[in-house]
Amino acid sequence: MKRLLIVFFIIPFVACQEADILRENPSGIYTADNMYVTESHFRSALNMLYQNYRNLYYGGDDNSFDLQLATDLSHAGQDGIVRFFSDYPATLDPTAAKVLYHWRGNYKIIANANTIIGRLPASEVPIEAQPQLEGEARFFRALAYRYLVYLYGGVPLILEETTSAKNDFTRSSKEEVIRQMIDDLQFAASNLPSIPDLPDGQVSKEAANHLLAESALAIGENELAIEASSQVIGNPALALMTDRFGSRRNQPGDVYWDLFQRNNQNRSSGNTEGIFVIQFEPDVPGGGQSTIARTGYQMERWHTPNVPLATDPDDRNLIATGFLPTSIVGRGAGWLMPTFHFSNEIWYDELGDIDYRDMRVSEYNFPRGVLYNNPSGPAKYQGVYFDINTDENQYLLNTSGTWSRGAYPYQTKATTPGDHPSNLILNPETMQLRDIGGVTYTDWYDMRLAETYLLRAEAYLAVGNTTLAAVDINTVRSRAGAASVDASAVDLDFILDERLRELGIEEKRRLTLSRTGRMYANIRQYNRYNADDIQEHHQVFPIPQSEIDANIGAVLEQNPGYN
Description:
Layout: H1 39-58, E1 74-75, H2 88-91, H3 97-119, H4 130-152, H5 174-191, H6 205-218, H7 222-233, H8 255-258, E2 274-278, E3 281-282, E4 288-289, H9 299-303, H10 326-329, E5 337-338, H11 340-343, H12 393-396, E6 425-427, E7 432-433, E8 444-448, H13 449-462, H14 466-480, H15 492-503, H16 509-516, H17 519-526, H18 545-550
Parallel strand pairs: 3-4
Antiparallel strand pairs: 1-5, 2-8, 6-7
Helix pairs in contact: 1-3, 1-4, 3-4, 4-5, 4-16, 5-6, 6-7, 6-13, 7-13, 13-14, 13-15
């Protein structure tokens, strides 16, 4: 199959005499002046952008999960750990490392993209090959500004390679930044090949149009959002998956479950829904995953429950070895627990019960307990922690009154249920995993077609066409077996909830809430864990204080509300 491989330049260093240190001769083969010459040089530099992005938001650091944590999607499930977003004022202090992480990581991508764009015209790359390379770099520049503008608001807009010290940055407006994103993405969409003509994982015309639609929505360019999303949806090479497929299609499950099984995310596996898929190759240099260390995207570690190895005296912790072995749940720590809104409320039918007709909340995709205290009731998913007719404290709190990380509803897409790499299994009889478990051993969707439909529905709603908005929403719901929504019921709240139902932990929810202006209101309403500590100015991050202090040539203004 075709896959995008990440290749690195390695700069060798040689031993030297002490006096040689004073010489200005380059110590390696490659320098900034001779490594941006041929097309292969630029392809290697572009591959580094993929690596930068994967490391930033799909690495093992807890900062990778800041876009899901402390929103209406999830909470940290643990008091007293500031780096897990359990305290908004402390987490978003202007001097906090978390604030600097996203700033510097995204500007690193922008700097590398600017170097590629700026050096292409004078290179030996044929003129006819330059637009595609530039389009790819401009896609990543827009992608990085997407994070910056939704996390921080208006930020310095840097569009050229920085070749000397600079300390006079000023902030552009949020609209100026987004309009630059739109310009970059329109160029990318015009010059990148379509997805069937590219290796798995490489950004395409469709990825650019998907991000263009989202960016246009952010500044009210709704017709542009409709046009861009329609370009993606109308491509005959793309379609929602509606039939069982892939590596485990003959096992119990459903098509939504199939989307997230190992090796099922790319076109080479028959998947026509993935648009931009982050590539991982276990135990391959540069592959981003290891089965001999906890290396890689740790959504399993963060989202799945911290399964107890035995039941407690009250027999309440029944997600335990013998009920759901760790090879099913994964090696979870339970730091990214669902809000009650995400796990329960958005799934209620007109009678106030969870609508299990929707496969996205089925036993295969969003399990919520085991049968042990209701023999006369439904055969699955009844229990003290998860009874939908009890107060949410029944699953958020354990017997001591503290947050429980050992038992809660979770999305199986975070893990590879029953399909972990064999050398992670400690006990073949109980299927208990080794301590190094916790990595999600799949490729991971950054964009997929179901979201494109929901972006277009949002754009149709914005222009007042709820009929077409409902058509797009129902296309997604129909695949899931969910009841159709009437056009009269479509509003932004419904679309935001539908994004939770369809995307769940895939979604970088903080960006969506920021883009739609619903961050503060939704967290206050749906996240009881963070409702009391979030303040209105926390809807954007502070500008890192270290960046303000170093910018002595101009004023880099702080966001209101931060000291």
